What we know:
Elements: H1 2-6, H2 13-18, H3 21-47, H4 61-64, H5 66-78, H6 89-117, H7 121-135
Helix pairs in contact: 3-6, 5-6, 6-7
Amino acid sequence: SFQPVYEQWGFNTISIGLAFIPILIGYFLAWWSFLPFIHKDRKIRRKDPDALQPERRLYWLLYTAPLETIGLFGFAWTSLGPGNGVHWIAPMIFSAMIAIANYAIYMATIDYMVAAYGPYSASATGGNALARDFLA
Length: 136
C-alpha cells in the first residue's frame, strides 16, 4: 500500500523504499521498550525463580497493543494525500506505530508461550507460527 500512498507526494521508487525506514525504527523502539521489563523480571527471578507468573510477560501489551488500531486508522486517514492538507510524514508516523505494536505483540506472545508451556514451548510456538502463516 506504500506505492499508491506516497506517489501522491511525488515519491519515486527509491523514496518509496526509504518510506519503510519508520517501520524499522518502530521495531527498534518496541525492542528497546521491553528492556526495562526484562531487566526488572530478571532481578525478581534471581531472588525467586517461581515468583513471576507467565502472564507477567503480557503486561506491556496493555500499552503497546492499542497502537496497532491507532496506527491502522491513522495511516488510512492520512493516506488521503496532499490534496487534503496532509504532510507526507504523517503516514510514516502511523506506520511506525503499527510496527511498534506488531513487534510488541509478537515478542510478548512468544515469550508468554515459552514461559507458560515450559518443555512443550517448541510445539506451542510452532503451532502459533503455523496458525499465523495459514491465516495470514
